[in-house]
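Structure tokens please, single chain.
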Amino acid sequence: MAYAILYVAFAAVTGWLVREHPAPLLGAAKFTDDAWYVLLFKIGGLLVVPLAAMRWRGYRIRDLTPVWPAGASGLVAPAIAFALGCVLNVPYLGRLSAALGSSSPARVGVVLLAGSLVPLLAAAVPEELYFRALLQTRLERVAGRAVAWVGTAVLFTAWHLPTRFLLADGVEGHAGDLGSVLLGTGVPVLLVGLVFGWLWDRYRSPALLVALHWGIDLLPAIASFAGVVR
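Here you go.
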């Protein structure tokens, strides 16, 4: 709980760094693909620190989930979840085709590689590791399933808001306009957090949640590296 609240403050610091000293990875269009945001805030803050804390306390990654079916049967549900996540952002395909239609094969390859790896390593894996597998699970032990489900979703939403308040300009809201940020970012992220929390409560599968999260973020990330904004 303490780290989740601290992470909200860290989001404000990160937003300031991105605004004052922007360092977009490979010229990405979205601030969520800035080096400060990806490397320091997401990979550092939500992946490296929690994994180090787990190791320090004697836990391993496989301690986060019950036994998941091995082999092909264990891949079916994550594959379906990934496909469903991608379907949500199919409208990006037209703009991506237009943006990359005249690009060299090398540029297309770089855009596809970066747009695939960044949402996996900087969003899907760290966010599901910390907020669902770690935070929600620990809150259940002390406050029960309902409080853990809703509380985790609220904290998951909270860290999205400072960076959008400082930087957003589009469907996620407009910088400096709290109302638009709450409506454009807060409401949809809260709904997503509740859905993901329910899936964790029901299935206890990091692979399922990571696959769904990755699918949702994949096309917007590729679009960002292609210079397409929404």
